[in-house]
Amino acid sequence: MFIKQFCPLGTIYEINSILLTSLLQACAYSRSSDMNAFEDILLNNMFLFGCTGHCLIVSPNFWTLMIDLVTDFYEYGWGQSFHFANRFHDETLAESIQRHESYLALKMNLKAGDKVLDLDCDVGGSLRRIAHLTGTHVTDITISDY
Description:
The protein has 146 residues and is an alpha+beta fold. The protein folds into two domains: 2-58, no CATH class; 93-141, no CATH class. 45% of the residues lie in helices and 19% in strands. A four-stranded antiparallel β-sheet has the order 1-4-2-3. A two-stranded parallel sheet has the order 5-6. Strand 5 (115-119), helix 5 and strand 6 (137-141) form a beta-alpha-beta unit. The chain is flat.
């Protein structure tokens, strides 16, 4: 279903279908009725955030499937922490991310026993590390069971 209005979840625009065709073929996700209903749209369109356009309303199962798909690729590239950090010359990406998470823990002035809520935590790697460093209790909430 399409709605012509601002859509906070994302909008769709036409792109070269080869980009998404190769991406979908690379993943061995089981097919569901939700996936079948939107496959043609996904092969020709991509979600863009913060734009005005035709809003695509999808079922929660379909949206979760897409998040799980993207999460697999993010974990392949970044591990459990989905963010970037500046890198020193002799530092690996993983080391720079761990250093950045340690810096965030210091700047948040967290102490043992504090409670932290992480909304849309992806897989929660960053805050798990911060909890380990500081002794805080972390609650992660996300829309995916991933």
